[in-house]
Write a structure and sequence with these properties.
Layout (H helix, E strand, L loop, with lengths): L7 H12 L2 H11 L10 E3 L9 H13 L3 E2 L1 E2 L10 H7 L2 E2 L2 E2 L24 H12 L6 E2 L1 H5 L4 H14 L1 E4 L14 H21 L5 E2 L12 H5 L6
Parallel strand pairs: 1-2, 1-7, 3-6, 7-8
Antiparallel strand pairs: 4-5
């Protein structure tokens, strides 16, 4: 199954066109029922378990400025940590240019809610990334979508609703890969997610509505250099 990605300008035009299609808008709204926090207006969205101080966030802020569409940064701190997901692994092992700093043990926290993870310095992982954003000058606010996602009763159900949001309500900055056999991570867990959860939801949304508006990030994903001093305080002491 091939995943459709849009150029940014094309995504904006498609969003404007779909917003004028009242039948399509009503069909999506009937399924979604209630919009998640912050999505009352159209947005450019970058959704992560925790918002990292990375080049990807800068990408989204640039896209927002370029298009005039507000940026929205939903988080899901109650999501479970799996090291096969590259974005989640980077929360515990931030990648800065040519170095990677491990601030929490990926094996010890496997399967735990990300909101409960503590660094080697016994600090909340969530608080550490908040401090990293402050130091990097990222003032973007976040919206916690944990409650909205959990109301659907699990990823197999909420992922269809999540993807449906990007048919008529927003543009998602994301890279799931070229198809359901590749993506931003590797290993059994990630391939299982793509095949068992993402693919059925994506195919259903495309069949019932239109392809979700996915735009690839502009740059490789790495933490901003200003964050290194923050992360060094939390790495394992030798």
């Amino acid at each position: 199954m091939e995943i459709v990605y849009f150029e940014l300008d094309d995504a904006v035009r498609a969003l404007e066109r779909r917003q004028m299609n009242h039948r399509l808008v009503e069909a999506v709204n009937r399924y979604v029922v209630q919009l998640p926090p912050g999505l009352e207006d159209v947005c450019v969205v970058y959704a992560q378990a925790l918002l990292p101080a990375t080049t990807r966030v800068q990408d989204v802020l640039f896209m927002s400025q370029y298009t005039g569409i507000p940026a929205l940064f939903p988080t899901y701190p109650d999501d479970k940590f799996v090291r096969e997901n590259g974005d989640k692994l980077m929360l515990l092992k931030p990648h800065l240019q040519d170095k990677r700093i491990e601030i929490a043990d990926p094996n010890a926290w496997y399967g735990n809610p990300i909101s409960r993870i503590k660094t080697y310095a016994d600090a909340s992982l969530r608080a550490v990334h908040q401090e990293a954003r402050r130091v990097a000058g990222i003032t973007a606010s976040t919206k916690d979508w944990s409650g909205w996602l959990q109301n659907w009763g699990g990823a197999r159900r909420y992922y269809f609703a999540f993807l449906a949001l990007f048919v008529t309500r927003a543009i998602l900055v994301e890279n799931y890969g070229q198809n359901t056999r590749s993506g931003r991570g590797d290993g059994h867990e990630w391939k299982q997610f793509l095949g068992d959860i993402f693919a059925p939801a994506y195919e259903s949304v495309c069949r019932d509505f239109e392809p979700p508006l996915f735009v690839r990030p502009l740059s490789p994903n790495q933490y901003l250099p200003e964050t290194e001093a923050v992360f060094r305080l939390h790495e394992r002491q030798q």
